[in-house]
Amino acid sequence: MGTEQQAKRRISRRRRLVSLLTASFLTFGAGVAFFSASPANADPVEQCTATTGAVVAVDFGPFGGPVVRGCDTTPTTGYELLHEGGFSTTGTVHDGDGFICRMGNGSFNSGTQYPTPAEEDCVLTPQATAYWSYWIASPGQKNWTYSPLGAMSRTPKDGDVDAWVFGGTDVGGTTGKPTFSPDDVRAKGGVPTTDPTDPTGPTAPPASVDVAAAIHWLTGVLTDGERVVDEGATAANHMLTTEVVYALAAADPKSRVAQKAASFLALPAQTDVYAYPAGKDRIPDASAAARLALVAEATGKDPRDFGGHDLLGDLVKYVCPRDVGDGETIPGCLTKGDFRSSGQADAQAMAVIALLNGDVAPPADAVNRLTGLQCEDGGFTAILIRAGEWCDSDASSTGLMALALNRAGGHDAVVEKARAYLKKSQLPTGAWPSVSYLTTGSAGPTGWAAQALRALGDADRADAGVSWLSKQQLPAGGFGFEEGETDPRLFATTPVVVAGAKSDLVALTAKKADPPTTPTPDPTTTPPPGEGPDLKKGSAYLTDHKRLIQGHYYENAQGSGFADYGLTIDGAYALAATGHDNAALRNIVDFLDKGGKDGKGRGIHDWTLIGTKYAGGGFIGKTAVLAEVVGRDPRNFGGQDLIGALAKAICPEKTPTPRPCAAKGNYTNATSVFSQSLGVMAQVRAGETVAAAEPIAYLKSLQDPSGAWPSLIGEKSDIEVDSTAMAAMTLDLLPDADSRAAVDKAVAWLAGRQLADGGFPGASGNSVNSAALAVQGLSLDATKYADPIAKGRKFLASQQNADGGFKVIKGGQPESDVRASAQAVGGATGISFGSLTRSLDGTTPEPLPSSSGGPSGSPSTPAIVTPGEETGSTNTNDGSGSGGVLASTGAQTLVLALAAVVLVLGGWGTARAAQRRRGTTGGEA
Description:
- By secondary structure, the chain is mostly helical.
- It contains 32 helices and 12 strands.
- The longest helix is centred in the N-terminal third of the chain and has 17 residues, at about 5-20.
- It is elongated.
């Protein structure tokens, strides 16, 4: 992780190192006279202290003079520091005042400026063999650093010291350093009462990064949900793909998208082209091998068997045994302990972390190599320098090296110096700059520094960094490189996500602890505040054996033996939302996934009709979403690839009749907004956002100017609450600005439809279904719509019966209805279908019977069929059936009726974590 800017800086540093290897210091002779000048317009040097103001020192030695010091108690730029310190300057005709050609001070030779006009006319830029070179040193820094900025651009900090030296210095600043040290000219007074290596941290208001929004953006960057492809390219950018995996795994250790991307990288052809460019049996690229090993560790794969390679074994095998020049040259080696062909310090650190987290002891020389990269100020450089070479610290490299050495152990002093560097380089805003001399923050370095300091116990410092980052998040969810940038960048976003998730590269790739021998039950959902229905009683109603046949399915009519698979999935969503009976949920899921049959010998795919011309995008999508909710593979659920089937079900064009295809981008036989939304949701949750582009565009096109959606597709239909809520929950998964605007508009419309008693209108009246879905939709912006949500939940509570079930509509039949109850139980949690998850860990599978039983035993009453429906729905009026009045409001077909049922998604707490910050309110959504 890092930034593209850092990559450019590293190239520049390599060039600088070429001259550094042969450079020698230019000295002006032994014995330097120091003289502190205090002209009338200058701040007396005594007013600058170790913690107040900055000092500048100018060496007039080449002209027979002393080293003269000056002080500025309130420095703004290096240029102003010179003038406030009592020095006069002259620029060049060609470059202006910014390039200092001559300099003088009243304390030496009556203020004559040197070099004199006879020595240098100052028309053009002077030669590198004779010019005033600019050097800087931060508090505590023992050696000078050649300033990468001009004096007008650099902003000195309190305690800094600048130096100007005339003579032969190359443009890169690798020769001609001052003959005096920074400590020789520093301000001596004002010793701080606290340890200067542990300065007081910035004060920042508590705030958090919207990790869910950032993940949405990162997921959208992936091609086919598995790889990053640069604009204009066709091949994968493997390095950036590893970055995305780290971020996804930090936010969700069980991320399905991270798993898919890792599986792509683990394809032998991809591993070979990335990590073994010289040939699959040749020396690996150490940086790529380390990154892939960390990907494996982050996603639960084996780094010793990844893409056909033992990545850890190869890293250890190819460690440089000696320095360059010590015997025969070894390709890819600079210094003893280098991982061959690593090239950069971050690769060295990542390789050490990967080995340690893979239970492989890294060679001691490889770990010690990291310690040699520490600069005198305590920070680390990004270049694999050799001893004595130019060392330039930055926050990103320091954060990563500190994490690696802290994980390795035995280097406490080095880690403590790095920790101190990160503390003192933190800006008052809480951010860290990309390079030490800047005074504005950078997202990537702040992410890295926050990761390291949190791991080292400085949570308050890390939180201050995250607070600053929260203000830099762009509307799309990503982050730019530098403060104020408006374009999101992947390289900047990934370390921020890890820091925002309060994790770090070491923690997210560490071996996960073995599960306890006594499984810990998945916690139940904490409902939103305020009065609401009894979700535990509601869950018990749904799992009662009189309704849930053999614990596996609901019948379409009592005693029919014919499974209503759509209703069964609705019940599963509700159980997943509350977490009150994970064992019952497991039985339903296993029944659907493992080939269970109803009393008529029908399985789940006799309902989805997958593989036939009647396959329904909504049916397939609904089943796939359930698989995703409970952590099953939607590409192999019930023996079918549901995600692949959805891709095949996308209509290439409109057909003469609304069925099978109402328009291009419609899913086949998806005749309702609910069905279209379910298909899109399933694809997006599976990481197939790109593949779902046309269905997404079609769903957006159906939105009414009011912000609402109609019920049906392909025929005239009124706008309604149920479909609007469902479409909003689907588009909320997408990071683009258009989708967010559509969701905001939809949620505002929903709020305007609420009735005085807290309910919402449906096709059959003041509907429980509509109220439950509206609560879910409003919860997409829970802060803004807290009052309508509370009123909606109170309404749902008023419609709950003593048996735990719910009525269909207010004032309608008094008996409880399974379909309305499933909708109400899940909807009352406020969880969007797009974010619902429920782990089945700790549950035990039960064997499936050879037949899932016949009818429940009660005589079947005549089916009441609504005109236009494909199958009937029986009104049992006994409180145990699927309902009399059609519970799915606004439905005119069974497809819509089934799809409109609550797809209750797990856990209010999960929802709040997943809900994004909306720019319209400034709060969490």
